[in-house]
Amino acid sequence: MKAFVFHGPGQSAWEEVPDPAIKEPTDAVVRVDAVTICGTDLHILKGDVPEVQPGTILGHEAVGEIVEVGGDVRTVRPGDRVLVSCISSCGRCSYCREAMYGQCRGGGGWILGHLIDGTQAEYVRVPFADLSVHALPSTVDSKDAVLLADIFPTAYEVGVLNGRVRPGDTVAVVGAGPVGLAAITTAQLFAPERIVVVDLAPARLEAAKRLGADAVADAREAPEQLVADLTDGLGADVVMEAVGVPETFELCTRMVRPGGRVANIGVHGRPATLHLEELWIKNVTITTGLVDTHSTPTLLRMAAAGRLPTAQLVTHTFPLDRMAEAYDVFARAADTGALKVVLGGEQHEVAVRGA
C-alpha cells in the first residue's frame, strides 16, 4: 500500500510500505476513505515531537471501512463504516475508567501517527477497536465526519468544557484556525453573551464571523483593549488559547477577568512565561489538556442532525496520493487561506480481506 512516511525533520514521502496486519486480538484494520492534516503533524515534520521515530506513518484522524478485525473485537465487523478516533483507549486502566482516554496507561492515548503507524495511508491498523472507532451513520459525509476525529472534540472538551462556558459569558478565542473555529461553534451551545475572536489573518477572522463570532480583532491591534471595552474593563469570563505560542498564551492571561478561566488548547513547543506576580491575586483558573474524545458520540449525533457546521471548515480537498501537495497548502495557510484540508472522501466498494 501507499502511505505518508516521516523520515526525520523536514523529510517525508508518499511511498510504498507493507500492508498493516492484525497484531492483537483487539485490533481492527481499516481501509481509509478520508483523512485530514493536523497542526500537530506539522510540528512532527519540523522535529518538534522527538517521540516520533523516522519511518513512522503520520496521521491520527480518518474515516474508513473495516476490512479485518481481531478475535476479541465485538462492536464492529468487516464492512462497517467508521470514524477512527485520534485517541485510542484500552478501556481498562484507571484513566480510561474515568473517561480520560488521552491519559490511557494501557497502551492507548495518542499513539496513531505518534508512537505507531498512523492514518495517512491506504490502510491503518487501529488498536483497541471496540473503544477507538465509532460506527458512522450513513447521513454523515466522510469529509464532514473526519473533522470529528480530533478538532471538534478537542475544541469542545479542552476549550469549552474545560473553560466552563456558561450562559451570558463573554468568551474570547485567541486563534481562528480549525480548532479555534470549532471552539466558536461549540461554545455557542452554552449561549454566551458574546464571542470575541483574535487572529492575524483577515480570512480567518472572516471565517470566525461567518461561524458566529460577535466581534473580531487583529492580534497586532491591542485586542485586550477591545475585550476590556466590551466588559466594562473586567475582561472575558473565558479565554481559549488555540495557537500554541508563548505570545498568545500571555495575551490570554491579560484578557481574562478576575475569577475567570483560561483554557489552553494549543500545542506549545516553547516555554511561555506565567506571570504569577500579576495573576495570583485574580483567582484565575488555567487549564491544559490533551483531548480524551469522550464527547465524540455526542458530537456525532449532533453532526447527523445537522447541528455542527463541519463543512464550512473544509477549504481544500485532494485525493490521497497528493498528500505532499496537501501538506504544502496546509502549512502555508496564511497564503493559501487553508482552514481544514481533507484528502480522499470518495465512496468505494468495500474490499473485505479474506473474503
Task: Report on this structure.
- There is one protein chain.
- With 355 residues, the protein is an alpha/beta fold.
- The chain folds into 2 domains: 2-150 and 292-344, Quinone Oxidoreductase, Chain A, domain 1 (Alpha-Beta Complex); 155-287, 3-Layer(aba) Sandwich (Rossmann fold).
- 26% of the residues lie in helices and 24% in strands.
- It has 13 helices and 16 strands.
- Strands 3, 5, 6, 7, 8, 15 and 16 form a 7-stranded mixed sheet that branches.
- Strand 12, helix 9 (246-255) and strand 13 form a beta-alpha-beta unit.
- The radius of gyration is 20 Å and the shape is globular.
- Belongs to the zinc-containing alcohol dehydrogenase family.
- Residues 8-343 form the Enoyl reductase (ER) domain.
- It comes from Streptomyces hyaluromycini.
- This is Zinc-dependent alcohol dehydrogenase family protein.
Which superfamily, in CATH terms, is the homologous superfamily of the largest domain? Answer: Medium-chain alcohol dehydrogenases, catalytic domain
Note the run of SSEs as H and E. EEEHEEEHEHEHHEHEHEHEHEHEHEHHE
Quaternary organization: single chain
Helical stretch count? 13
Assigned CATH class of the largest domain: Alpha Beta
Radius of gyration: 20 Å
The overall strand count is 16
- Report the β-strand fraction as a percent range: 15-25%
Span between N and C termini? 19 Å
Pfam families: ADH_N, ADH_zinc_N
Keywords: Metal-binding, Oxidoreductase, Zinc
Cofactor: Zn(2+)
Protein name: Zinc-dependent alcohol dehydrogenase family protein
